[in-house]
Amino acid sequence: MADSLQTLSLIVLCQAYKGGLVRQVNRQAVALKCLPFVEGAGLNVAFAPSGSGAVAENFAEGADVANYGSDTQASAILTWGQYRANFHVSGLAAAAAATSPTPEGNMKLWARNMQDSMSTLASLINGAVYTGAGTGTLLVGLDKAIGLANNTYATIDRTVSGNAYFRPNVFATAAPLTFDLIRSDLAAIYIAAGMRPDVAFVHPNVFNKIAALFDGVKQYQFQVVTARGPVSLDGSAGALNIDGCMFIEDKDATDGCIYYVNTNHVRVEYLPFDPGTVPGMSDEILDLFVDDGFGTTPLGVRLEMLAKTGDSEKATMKTYLQLVCDRPNACGKRSNIA
Question: Which whole-number Å values give the CA distances from 171 to 182, 189, 259, 326, 337, in the listed order?
Answer without folding.
Answer: 11, 11, 10, 20, 10
